[in-house]
Amino acid sequence: MSEPIKHECGIALLRLRKPLSFYQEKYGSATYGLNKLYLLMEKQHNRGQDGAGIATIKLDAAPGERYISRARSVHTQAIKEIFDRVHQNFAEAKREDPSIFSDVHRMKKELPYLGELLLGHLRYGTHGKNTIEHCHPFLRQNNWKSRNLVVAGNFNMTNVETLFNQLVSLGQHPKEKSDTVTVMEKIGHFLDEENMEMFEQLTAQGMSKTDAQQEIALKLDIKRILQRASKYWDGGYAMAGLLGHGDAFVLRDPNGIRPAYYYVNDEIAVVTSERPAAATAFNVSVDDIRPIPPGHAFVIRASGEYELIEVLEAREPLSCSFERIYFSRGSDYAIYNERKKLGELVVPAILKSVNHELENTVFSYIPNTAETAFYGMIKGVEDYLNDYKIKSLLALPQPPDPAQVKALLELRPRVEKAAIKDAKLRTFITQDNQRDDLVAHVYDTTYGILRPGLDNLVVIDDSIVRGTTLKQSIIRILARLQPKKIVIVSSAPQIRYPDCYGIDMSRMGDFVAFRAAINLLKGSGREALIDQVYAQCKAQDGLPDEQIVNYVQQIYAPFTDEEISAEIARIVTPEDLEVPVEVIFQTIAGLHEAIPHHRGDWYFSGNFPTPGGMRVVNRAFINYIEKNNSRAY
């Protein structure tokens, strides 16, 4: 993607189902769990550059012994910094008394982080400050083990204000109005209530307070706690939690918007945001790693037993398609094939754009995430050429001229590396005019690969959000090759609407597709529609959730996708550029053909899966009209 956007976080929950001595004997280290957690987090490093954190819980710790440890960092190499800190504790212990490493029981008792229950989090902050206080896991402490709560998640709630007010109505005084704190306190409130209700019932039956606490740890109703806590949540989430006595859970939203996968064997139970991380860490097939169903929680009890529990009634499965297009690593074979298919499906539109003149067309891609879609695009061109060769060979007079046969067989797509990204270039200059000049050089090109004025240049990217980098850098650089025409291809459809479920796309004016539609309305004398939609959005303030409508879809309704694409091309073309530029987008139908099992497309279609999403898009439009640059949620 030429315009990186902050997006979904990553989680890794690991439960060791055997005593630490087992891993010491089999794998030669009692730090087996920590080593695997490190690997799970590094393999999902793409999901978080703003910070990271871990938390561990030791099972069966005696009173007075520390059993919860947490470390967080906003360092530029946060994962490394955290685990360096962890292992520093071990190095210091070894210097003081090397014999400790021959006694696993003593290691567990005396060394921090050496627990059987581990949780890791990688943060991409969609909003909020990038400080240590905003890094997960969050910790809610209590002297009762079963009331300690550790929370980390990949989520965004659209109705934080409502949830916050509910907490206040319960008599709480939350320290801040963020979805993380609000969610943790919601779970914590009902965790406290469940503990107290069970404690009162058990002691009323004559059980001692100590025995009652042990019984609570055995029979705590995780399903009931999560049902009560999540009843009014509106958003996309994969919420991970650890309880001090050893229970753990990962809860997925009812539409399955955010991803979460689990794997269990006799030794471990693990949940990750991406399948390949677990497959690599434990050397298992990705086919053995299963998604947590929407509305369900994967629950691991302190005993090591596990189950899938339906917490909320599942709704239409609408897992995030952007996850497949861009966010997740392409090492998942399903995602890899989906991205290739996205590239393949835009080929007919490309061929039309270059008048099928493949001998005069060079194909390339914007590094680096569009590479897989590029392979699919080339496959589509090769398939077209193979059909052309067959028809042409059959049409040759018999016997055919060997030179003509040879010329046909040698037809193939012309592939070159037209765009090169200078990863080390930093836009440190603060003056706008100088910064723009530097941004223009973030990308470079390979000179001499085109025949000036004769060859078309087709370049694919996985998506186009704002269009700024295209205009300021990429198109200018590519134009230096003097192509006859530049064709920019997006393997994703036009991004028309904000996201409110974990992707940093919240302002309507940022989207080049929206700006194009507004330009077309004004250019065709239909400004009245803009005012009409604004009035309709304003009128929905205070309406019940079931009555909320996405009126912003009307902004795009008068125009075809091709008309909007043509206006986008005009917007992203530098004013002084003489080379014609065309922009081609994937269709929504093509998106669903390529990615049939992950149908969440609200940023393209405006069909939001929750009422909160409808509220957000209306608020984003209101903010745009009122020139309010605030986030819509």
Defining key terms:
40% helix; seven-stranded antiparallel β-sheet; alpha+beta; globular; 633 residues; single chain
The biggest sheet, with number of strands, parallel, antiparallel or mixed sense and barrel status, is:
7 strands, antiparallel
State the end-to-end CA separation.
25 Å
Category from helices, strands and their pairing: alpha+beta
Number of domains: 2
CATH superfamily of the largest domain: Aminohydrolase, N-terminal nucleophile (Ntn) domain
Output the CATH class name of the largest domain.
Alpha Beta
- Strand portion: 15-25%
Report the helical percentage. 40-55%
CATH fold naming of the largest domain? Glutamine Phosphoribosylpyrophosphate, subunit 1, domain 1
How much is the radius of gyration in Å? 28 Å
CATH architecture of the largest domain: 4-Layer Sandwich
| Total E-strand runs | 20
- Low-confidence region ranges: 426-432
**Oligomeric composition of the shown chains:** single chain
Average predicted confidence as pLDDT:
93
Total number of helical segments? 23
The main sheet orders its strands as 3-2-4-1-10-9-11
Basic shape: globular
